[in-house]
Amino acid sequence: MNSICLLAFSLLLAVTCQADPPVTSATGSTPPAVAKEAVNYTIRVEWKDAKKGKSSLQIVTTEGRFELDTLSGTTKINDAEVPNTVKLSGTLTELDSQRARFQLFLGRAVPYATGSYLGSGGGKSSSYSQLSVGLDCTFIATFGKPLVIQKDDNGTVSILVTRGDK
Question: Residue 71: inside a domain, yes or no?
Answer without folding.
Answer: yes
